[in-house]
Amino acid sequence: MRIDGAEVIVTSPGRNFVTLKITTADGVVGWGDATLNGRELSVASYLRDHVAPLLIGRDAHRIEDTWQYLYRGGYWRRGPVTMAAIAAVDTALWDIKAKVAGLPLYQLLGGASRDRCLVYGHASGRGIPELSDSIREHLELGFRAIRVQTGVPGLDSVYGVASSSAASVGGSGRYDYEPARRAALPAEESWDTRAYLRHVPSVFEAVRNEFGPELILLHDAHHRLTPIQAARLGKSLEPYDLFWLEDVTPAENPEALRLVREHTTTPLAIGEVFNTVWDYQTLIREQLIDYVRSPVTHAGGITGVRRIIDYAAMYQVKSGMHGPTDVSPVGLAAAVHLGLAVHNFGIQEYMLHSPETMAVFGPTFEFAEGGLRPGEDPGLGIHFDEDLAAKYPYEPAYLPTNRLSDGTVHDW
Length: 412
Description:
Residues 128-267 form the Mandelate racemase/muconate lactonizing enzyme C-terminal domain. The chain is of the alpha/beta class.
């Protein structure tokens, strides 16, 4: 099973994706996702110029050895670019191994631990009436868990709030939120923490009053709060029984979560910007979080994320893998296979990809009864259309930046 080719494909069917195609000498093809939102070409170059030449002639079955070869052999370890590139290789090799075995990937990971993976969708609105409409749309689509984000009075643009309803995605009549904007420079947004902290509890009070106690609700603070502000938010949201509060404070300061834990029992999720199990050591060992958020795409592939999830299991911490539309259907399929197999699965983020994206990638996973289940095709269940992908060239796109009212750059 020698690797004969490694090709990097950059395509933009609605948004930019970086996909790795690995081909063995006997023609078996594996697919990997290397998309890094707003910095896609950095990973494409890393793969094309530095990683692909190292793969030719290697045994495709030696997945662990290849992972260690790329991680330790590069010397400059970790980081989103390196780990996204390793993730693409790792996922593609698992895809190949499962295809050779004639089995869907989850069977090679130990088989199914559940019938399907519970997912949550993204409901948003500039105000509570618009948010309620969005929640109802998601319920009609079959979601049983919903992340709630709203505009904040006095702010023109807020993370997590869909800005367009012109296109229909998944029959919902709303375009799924995609913050990366196609432009030569990043957009600049403004932020007011005090206004946010005053507003959010009233939003959840209104949602609970309208939709009742059984609906699973989540919220993302997106790294914007200091530890004491995060503690205040968690405490104020306790009456509304959140499934989790995500990214309450910048993740690179793990000690901050000790203070948050002291003041609130609201479950905490963190880690979508983490790339390895080493990033989580303090947070998991001291049980400062309840869910790990790293996606397969950004944290070293199935091999890398399995290490994180297995370590988390020792401390009763569960998975909650990142999965909006900046993870391609390849990365999402890998997450669903992994989530179906591991014992300590918690929930999977799921945003509906555009019809153009689905046509290019041809995934076989299915959404029903509030969850995702991988298809039964051998491998990941991806049927990538290279000819169609070529019709969608890359377009520069950047995530926004954020400033306070006095002009200070703030966490977006």
